[in-house]
Design brief:
35% strand; Rossmann fold; 16% helix; 11 helices
């Protein structure tokens, strides 16, 4: 299940029945003063400009970044410290999506993508452009793309650009995207395959390198450029990432791939886990990658492994670590730069390789919030020569998105842009809170109500992240911020199953979903209530995806929550197994398929204990959600209505697991505030 990293954007969807296209269920009426505050929050959110990509040139002298606002993007180019920044216009009217500097010369490749048709019936179109900074000439188109492209990489000699490519794609190749209508003959058509392609730096049509029968998720070329390593599985790509294997092949069309690592047959700690981020060693003798229990492609976390490029037994280089590496790169033959999650914080660290181990030998800095470009969590851009410089997009609870850049030192690099300098926030302060429970160290974030008064008592919402393999990290304008502005404490726990406390902690969720993690959360609630004036009779819970499941399951185990908002949740793991289009993700978490061990799935199904529930529920979901299909929400809603428990179900037309419609996002905000306001009475003191 996806990590639900879109904040309130992922708490969208509602209606007693599916809303037909062009129609919208009317949100509950709200007081004029509350409506004015909502409008103000929405206006503030609309002002935020995001930074989807940052790229630092090889010589460390030039910095490029993208700024997105609504449907528009702007390509900016300046010196490494942001000076002299100016916009570069790319012809064609499409959005800039990706940036990559050429090695050893100042040429910038820019990937553009035209607007994707919401019906998923028209081909996606885009292009790759080249900007020669030294020549000072206008951008030059290298190739038109009839399909979806991402993940550009230059060859070492600067003569070619490789990328992931879905020829003829009509839909974004993410399980979180809106699915195609499930009509006609199912499973025998409309299979889109992502492959490694490349073009010449001089221009030309894309050349497909990897086999048609392999869906490639990530790849990396060797230092000499004659081979590629990639993570791939058989199509369809949405479902089979959890069974992907590591391959190596010559970097030419028609070359036969060699299987290097298959986690399904591997022994040791990697057995049955997921793999990501293949990286060649500088001598091309071995490949390092991250292996771990991961809920979703792009939500990377685990231990760092090594395997000979020719094949062999994978070795866990960081076994027993109490942190979660999420991104890394080689600095030289014996050292790595590793970005990791440590108790809810982002650390940029140095690791030294020695034999069969990689040991952290330096903490470069701890960032105040998240860094990276969204899907490539915690990724940074580095220069290729001394002095080593680092750049990334960063934001936190207190700092809006800006580009940060500077020399790699023991201090976080400063912001070199002022894109969002005029933004201010009205939510309350946020602090890390930690507790021990059942032999585990647990961390979470606690956001205070705006205008907090210690002489008053307050309600509290527990905001559960998706995954479960993910972590709540500091971010600007996240969903809890709105709750804070309306007078709630918000606890954002990272219970067992989360990243940040090591792989043993992440894997403690296996076959225990809704049990150990809920117990961790309740222990955190107890701790916070001892610290602050929180009314235990006014507790709520909300979340999306796995957080939606928890918001459905928790009321069957505890009566402490007086209202929940369950976004894209799961009521019955048994029926869900046959309804969703990513069933492979479940086997690593439950230990077997439903058909081999149905009792494991029944154990965590809210519907089996539904008569224990007493909690009013607002249930929201996208009509074409592939990951957590709408029937799961219908099932939970139907049960509560039958039992006489207040429940409202809202289904948003044509939306997937990620809600892409801004009006729907606004609707969920209003409904959520109304629901919690009705049952928790935030204004009562």
């Amino acid at each position: 299940m996806p990590p639900a990293r879109h904040g309130f954007m992922l708490l969208v969807v509602s209606a007693a029945l599916a809303i037909a296209p062009g129609l919208r269920a009317k949100a509950p009426p709200v007081a004029a003063s509350e409506n004015a505050r909502i409008e103000q929050i929405l206006a503030q959110r609309a002002e935020v400009r995001n930074i989807p990509a940052v790229a630092l040139s090889y010589d460390g002298q030039h910095l490029a970044w993208l700024v997105s606002h609504g449907d528009d993007t702007e390509l900016m180019l300046g010196a490494w410290n942001g000076e002299g920044a100016h916009a570069i216009a790319i012809p064609g009217g499409c959005r800039e999506q990706g940036l990559r500097w050429a090695p050893r010369w100042n040429a910038l490749a820019v990937l553009t993508r035209c607007k994707v048709d919401a019906s998923n019936t028209k081909p996606i179109r885009g292009a790759i452009w080249l900007i020669d900074v030294n020549a000072g000439k206008p951008p030059r188109k290298l190739a038109d793309l009839n399909g979806f492209a991402q993940g550009m990489q230059w060859s070492r000699d600067g003569k070619r650009i490789a990328f992931l490519y879905v020829p003829g794609a009509t839909r974004l190749p993410y399980a979180t995207a809106s699915g195609n209508p499930r009509v006609g003959v199912i499973g025998e058509s409309d299979v889109q395959v992502q492959r490694v392609a490349r073009i010449a730096a001089s221009g030309g049509a894309p050349e497909l390198l990897t086999p048609e029968g392999s869906y490639v998720y990530e790849f990396r070329a060797s230092s000499t450029g004659n081979r590629i390593a990639y993570i791939a599985a058989k199509p369809p790509g949405d479902d089979n990432w959890w069974t992907a294997k590591l391959y190596v092949q010559d970097a030419r069309a028609g070359a036969a791939p060699k299987l290097v690592v298959d986690p399904a047959t591997a022994g040791g700690p990697l057995h049955g886990l997921q793999i990501a981020l293949p990286r060649w060693s500088p001598d091309d003798a071995r490949i390092l990658f991250i292996g771990g229990l991961m809920s979703d492609r792009g939500a990377t976390g685990g231990d760092i492994y090594s395997v000979p490029a020719s094949g062999g037994t994978p070795v866990d280089l960081t076994e027993g670590a109490k942190v979660t590496p999420s991104w890394f790169t080689f600095l030289d033959a014996q050292s790595l730069l590793v970005n990791q999650i440590a108790s809810g914080k982002t650390q940029v660290t140095g690791y030294t390789l020695s034999g069969n181990s990689a040991r952290q030998t330096r903490l470069w800095f701890t960032a105040p919030g998240g860094i990276g470009d969204g899907r490539a969590a915690l990724s940074v851009s580095l220069s290729g020569k001394a002095p080593l410089r680092i750049a990334y997009a960063g934001n936190s609870f207190d700092q809006p998105p800006e580009v940060h850049a500077g020399r790699l030192t023991t201090a976080p690099p400063p912001a070199v842009t002022s894109i969002n300098k005029d933004l201010a926030h009205a939510w309350g302060k946020v602090g890390s809170v930690e507790w021990d429970h059942a032999g585990f160290h647990v961390q979470g974030w606690l956001m205070y109500p705006a205008n907090y008064d210690p002489h008053k008592t307050y309600p509290m919402i527990v905001y559960v992240h998706g995954g479960p393999s993910w972590a709540t990290m500091p971010s600007w304008g996240s969903g809890p911020a709105m709750l804070s502005e309306f007078g709630y404490f918000v606890l954002m726990p990272n219970p067992r199953g989360s990243f940040g406390e090591g792989e043993k902690y992440a894997q403690a969720i296996r076959n225990q979903m809704g049990y150990g993690d809920l117990d961790d959360i309740l222990a955190g609630v107890d701790k916070v209530e001892k610290m602050l004036p929180i009314d235990d009779t006014r507790l709520g819970m909300m979340g999306w995806s796995y957080g939606g499941f928890m918001s459905m399951f928790a009321p069957t185990r505890s009566q402490r929550f007086k209202a929940v908002v369950a976004g894209a949740g799961i009521a019955d793991w048994q029926s869900y197994y046959g309804q969703n289009q990513i069933d492979q993700w479940m086997i690593p978490f439950f230990g077997a398929s439903l058909y081999d061990d149905p009792t494991a799935y029944a154990k965590s199904s809210a519907i089996n204990y539904i008569k224990n529930a007493r909690t009013p529920a607002l249930i929201v979901v996208g009509e074409r959600d592939e990951e957590c299909p709408a029937p799961q929400s219908f099932e939970y809603w139907h049960a509560l209505k039958t039992l006489g428990i207040p429940a409202t179900l809202v289904v948003y037309a044509n939306q997937g697991h990620h809600i892409a419609n801004h009006a729907d996002e606004e609707d969920i905000m209003r409904r959520t505030l109304d629901w919690f306001g009705k049952y928790l009475s935030a204004a009562r003191n």
